C-alpha cells in the first residue's frame, strides 16, 4: 500500500470517518472534543497557531482496520504476521517535502507546534505521535513511539520508563557519557506507527516490519545535523539527542494506555538541534488511550500465536481484551491434547507484558465474557488449574506495582487453565441443546405455522408401540428424544404412555450415558459397588 499520511486522511474524509472543523478552536479544548467525537477531527483554525491539528485517526476499531488496508480486525494480525516473516528493508531517498522549512540551532522553537492540552493532570505540552529512530554502534537501528514533554523551546524529556530496546540504547550511551542521536517523525502514516510499536528483537529494524505491512519499502531521508534517517513522508521531523543526564529529571504525569493517569516519572532530557516541516504541515496528536490501544493489540496477537506455535499448541482463537487494556489480558482457545492447557499458559505468559492469561477449549467463544467466566466456573479447581509465576518482568505502568525513582518492578503473572480436565467423562460437559432447535423456529409460529397432529392410540396401540420401542433399544440404546423422533408418527402422549408401560412392566433401564435400554441387557448401567 503506497498511501501516505495525507491520502489516508482524505480516505477517512471520503467515508465520513473524519470531520473538518474550520471555525476557530481553542487548543485547550481539542482533546476533550476528540474524546466526545465518533470520528477523527481535523482542526483547521487553532487559535494562536499557524498549523492545523488532526487527532483521533486510529481511535476506533474501524479506523484502525482502514489504516492498515484491511477488511476486518482479524486481517491486521495476518498482515502483521506476514510482515514479521517477510520484512521489507527501507528505501533511502535524498530528501523529502519535510525539508520545505528547516530551523536549526537557536531558531528551533517547539512552542510553534500546536500541542493540545490533554488531561487536567498533565505535566506539560506533550508530543505523543513521534516515531523515534535511533542507532546503537553495535546493535543497529531501533524504532519506537515515545512521548516528549516540551520543557523549553529546544528541550524536552523522553519517557523511557519501560525496559525496552530504546532504553537499552540510551543506557549504553550513558555508560559512554555520550548523547544518543534520535530523529522524531511526527505526522506519519499509521503503518509506520504500527511497525514501530512492534517490539522486535535486537537487530531487527522495525521500519522493515512497517515495510512488510505496506508491501513496499518505507522511504527514509537523511537528517542534516545527526547521522540518522527520518520517515520521509512525515509532516514534521525533529533532529535531537538524548543527553547523558540519566533518569534524573521529573516528567509527567501522563494519561496512559491503562486509562489511568500515570505517576511522576524520572527521565533523561532531549536537546532538539533542528526542526523541519512541510510548508503547510499538519500536526498529528495521538489521542490516549484508544489510539494507542487499537494498533498495539494486533502485535500481541501475533506474538502470542508465535509462542504457542513454538510450543506445539494448536490455537483456535485469541482475544487480547480491551478490559485488559489490550496489553495485559488474553483469552486463548485451543484444540487441546492432554496437558496442553498448562503448556499453552507457559508459552503465552512469556509474551511481552502479558499479565493474566486464560486458556479454554475450542468450544468456548473467547470474545464472549460470559462464556469465558462459565468455563472458569465449571472447569477450574484453583489448587490444580491456577498458575502463579512470581518476580516476572512487568510493565512499570501497572499501578498495582511499587513505583518510584529507579524502580523497575517485577510482578506476578497468572494463568488459568479453564479447559476440561483430563479423566473427566465428556458427557459431564455436554451442553443443554433443545430438541428440534434446528427446525422449530419461533418466527414461523408467530407467523401462524401449525404442526400436524400425530396418531393417537388406545391401550392396545400403546402396548404395540411399547413392543416396537423395546425391539429398537435392544440393539442400540437411544435417548428419550431420539425415541420420540423415531416414532413421531404417533402423538407424543401415546409415546410417553408407551415408555411408561415399559417402566411399569420392568423392562426399561438406562445405560451409563442416560440413554434408554433394555433392563438386564449388556448396555444397562450397573449400580456402583454391585
CATH class designation of the largest domain:
Mainly Beta
What kind of sheet is the major sheet? Answer: 6 strands, antiparallel, barrel
The domain tally reads 3
What is the 3D form? elongated
Count, helices: 15
Return the CATH architecture of the largest domain: Roll
Q: Which fold does the CATH topology of the largest domain refer to? A: Pnp Oxidase, Chain A
Radius of gyration: 32 Å
Structural class: alpha+beta
Could you report the average pLDDT, rounded to the nearest whole number? Answer: 89
- The CATH homologous superfamily of the largest domain is named Electron Transport, Fmn-binding Protein, Chain A
Strand order of the largest sheet: 6-7-8-15-12-9
For the secondary structure, the number of strands is 23
Strand content: 15-25%
Low-confidence blocks of residues: none
Oligomerization state of this entry?
single chain
**How far is the first residue's CA from the last residue's CA?**
72 Å
The level of helicity is 25-40%
Can you describe this structure?
- The protein folds into 3 domains: 88-290, Electron Transport, Fmn-binding Protein, Chain A (Pnp Oxidase, Chain A); 311-427, UbiD C-terminal domain-like (3-Layer(aba) Sandwich), CATH 3.40.1670; 442-518, Arc Repressor Mutant, subunit A, CATH 1.10.10.
- Helix content is 29%, strand content 23%.
- It contains 15 helices and 23 strands.
- It has helices at 5-14, 30-36, 61-67, 73-85, 165-175, 190-197, 206-214, 290-310, 340-348, 369-379, 382-385, 442-446, 459-475, 480-486, 492-504, and strands at 18-21, 40-43, 53-55, 91-92, 101-104, 126-136, 140-152, 155-157, 180-186, 219-222, 229-231, 236-242, 249-251, 265-267, 269-277, 283-285, 315-320, 329-334, 356-361, 386-393, 410-418, 508-510, 516-518.
- A 6-stranded antiparallel β-barrel has the order 6-7-8-15-12-9. It has a 5-stranded mixed sheet with strand order 17-18-19-21-20.
- Strand 7 (140-152) and strand 8 (155-157) form a beta hairpin.
- Helix 8 (290-310) crosses helix 9 (340-348) and helix 13 (459-475) packs across helix 15.
Amino acid at each position: 500500500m503506497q498511501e501516505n499520511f495525507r491520502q489516508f486522511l482524505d480516505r477517512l474524509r471520503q467515508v465520513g470517518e473524519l470531520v473538518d472543523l474550520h471555525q476557530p478552536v481553542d487548543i485547550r479544548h481539542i482533546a476533550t472534543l476528540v474524546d466526545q467525537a465518533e470520528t477523527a477531527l481535523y482542526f483547521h483554525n487553532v487559535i494562536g497557531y499557524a498549523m492545523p491539528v488532526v487527532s483521533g485517526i486510529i481511535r476506533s476499531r474501524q479506523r484502525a482496520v482502514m489504516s492498515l488496508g484491511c477488511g476486518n480486525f482479524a486481517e491486521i494480525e495476518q498482515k502483521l504476521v506476514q510482515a514479521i516473516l517477510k520484512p521489507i528493508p527501507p528505501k533511502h531517498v535524498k530528501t523529502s517535502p519535510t525539508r520545505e522549512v528547516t530551523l536549526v540551532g537557536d531558531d528551533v522553537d517547539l512552542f510553534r507546534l500546536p500541542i493540545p492540552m490533554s488531561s487536567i493532570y498533565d505535566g506539560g505540552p506533550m508530543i505523543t505521535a513521534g516515531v523515534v529512530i535511533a542507532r546503537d554502534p553495535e546493535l543497529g537501528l531501533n524504532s519506537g513511539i515515545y512521548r516528549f514533554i516540551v520543557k523549553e523551546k529546544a528541550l524536552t524529556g523522553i519517557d523511557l520508563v519501560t525496559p525496552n530496546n530504546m532504553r537499552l540504547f540510551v543506557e549504553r550511551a550513558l555508560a559512554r557519557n555520550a548523547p544518543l542521536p534520535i530523529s522524531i517523525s511526527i505526522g506519519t502514516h499509521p503503518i509506520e506507527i504500527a511497525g514501530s510499536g512492534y517490539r522486535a528483537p535486537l537487530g531487527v529494524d522495525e521500519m522493515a516490519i512497517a515495510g512488510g505491512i505496506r508491501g513496499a519499502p518505507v522511504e527514509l531521508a537523511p537528517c542534516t545535523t545527526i547521522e540518522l534517517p527520518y520517515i520521509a513522508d512525515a509532516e514534521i521531523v525533529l533532529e535531537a539527542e538524548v543527553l547523558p543526564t540519566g533518569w534524573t529529571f521529573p516528567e509527567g504525569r501522563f494519561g496512559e494506555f491503562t486509562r489511568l493517569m500515570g505517576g511522576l516519572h524520572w527521565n533523561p532530557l532531549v536537546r532538539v538541534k533542528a526542526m523541519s516541516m512541510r510548508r503547510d504541515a499538519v500536526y498529528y496528536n495521538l489521542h490516549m488511550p484508544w489510539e494507542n490501544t487499537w494498533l498495539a493489540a494486533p502485535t500481541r496477537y501475533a506474538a502470542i500465536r508465535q509462542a504457542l506455535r513454538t510450543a506445539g499448541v494448536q490455537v483456535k482463537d485469541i482475544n487480547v481484551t480491551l478490559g485488559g487494556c489490550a496489553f495485559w489480558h488474553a483469552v486463548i482457545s485451543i484444540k487441546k491434547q492432554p496437558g496442553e492447557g498448562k503448556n499453552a499458559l507457559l508459552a503465552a505468559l512469556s509474551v511481552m507484558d502479558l499479565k493474566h492469561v486464560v486458556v479454554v477449549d475450542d468450544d468456548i467463544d473467547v470474545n464472549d465474557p460470559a462464556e469465558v467466566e462459565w468455563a472458569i466456573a465449571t472447569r477450574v479447581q484453583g489448587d490444580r488449574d491456577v498458575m502463579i509465576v512470581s518476580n516476572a518482568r512487568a510493565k512499570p505502568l501497572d499501578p498495582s506495582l511499587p513505583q518510584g525513582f529507579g524502580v523497575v518492578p517485577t510482578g506476578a503473572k497468572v494463568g488459568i487453565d479453564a479447559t476440561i480436565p483430563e479423566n473427566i467423562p465428556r458427557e459431564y460437559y455436554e451442553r443443554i441443546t433443545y430438541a428440534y432447535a434446528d427446525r422449530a423456529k419461533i418466527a414461523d409460529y408467530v407467523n401462524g405455522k401449525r404442526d400436524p397432529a400425530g396418531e393417537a392410540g388406545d391401550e392396545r396401540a400403546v402396548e404395540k408401540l411399547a413392543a416396537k420401542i423395546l425391539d429398537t433399544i435392544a440393539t442400540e440404546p437411544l435417548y428419550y428424544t431420539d425415541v420420540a423422533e423415531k416414532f413421531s408418527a404417533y402423538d407424543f402422549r401415546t409415546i410417553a404412555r408407551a415408555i411408561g408401560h415399559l417402566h411399569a412392566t420392568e423392562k426399561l433401564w438406562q445405560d451409563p450415558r442416560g440413554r434408554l435400554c433394555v433392563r438386564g441387557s449388556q448396555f444397562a448401567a450397573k449400580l456402583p459397588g454391585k
